[in-house]
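Each lists chain and fold; for instance:
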Amino acid sequence: MTNAYDPVGYEHGRAAGFQKGKEDGYRQGFEAAKQAAEAPQPLGEISIRWREAGCAERIGAHLGVQVVLNDAVMECLKETVKSAIWKLEMKRAGEPQPLILKIFKAPVAGQDLNELNLYRHAASLLSEVMPDIYLILPHPVTGDVWVFMEYVPQLKGQVVFTPDHFDKIIPSLARLHAKTYNDRFYEQWDVFSEWLPIYQSAKVAMERQKTNTDTLTYLDKAMERPELKERLKDSYAMLQKVLVKGPDYFPQLLQAGQSIIHNDLQTPNMGCANVAEEQWTIKFIDWEGARFAPCWFDLFNLAGVFFAYRKDWRKDEDAVIERCSRLYAEEMQRHGITFAEEPARLYKMAYLQRVLERSLYLQLHWAVEGQKPAFLLDTYLVKIKEWGKELGLYS
């Protein structure tokens, strides 16, 4: 005897079966996804190279503690055709710690080679003011060079920067300069002679002379442009008189002494592990522009460039420059270095020397060629006029 067809029961069973199949499919899919997430992922180029080159053992030996790379935490902070900067994470004695990998892409030349050589040859000398260099790893085939180094948080993003922060940076800047001041540099001449740019070398002097000639050329070209002529007309004759005295305007700067300078003291290029401390321990980052030059140039790089861009602080500039120049001289004196010239006067000389030997040329060149707006031209003209007369560049 057959059962009678029950349409209600049939539909109920069909719906129940469909729902059970849906739930089973969901569970199976969830388990598959979970297993895939937990399975080891294919290693990237950095992880593979780390293992092939034995970086854990070599960096661990440098630090005196076992380290392990966390393959899941890697962030590219910046990449150009010449280099790439990665923020990685390693476990150091079981605790997570960030580190930086800077990749110098082949062929390494120019300022990149200068920076790399500084890491190769001067890391121990400048260890107080430079990130700790853990390992330098040349690639045997591509020619790229990988540098693993200490991660130091940039000032940019940690503080809202004001001129008061110069006071916290200058002691570290003085430590940098004092390490290689005058004879202290020449005592280690063999370390630097083959690669570090030297301000008084024939090559660098010729570059300054060429820039001086080009500045005069672009000054005349600028006067042919109505919009630039309007900005330059009150300064043109004065600039001609001043520039023909170049490219070296103040022998007092050389007499005040030279050292390795960083040459690009922006907040992204300065790091501090703890800005809550009263005394900051500053480490300088990205040393492409480093050279042996008058030490007062870095005060221009620190304060002069800041005020050139920050019109909102201009009213405080004179007082800040007076204070910072005096503080720098006092900090250098702690390291046995004294200056015969009045500190604020040396600062003004350094400012004008750098502007006249390079910055003015860039502003005129960019404006004439239409490459960039000459935002700082008017600021520089005011300083040349005001401080140039004060310092006897023209009457």
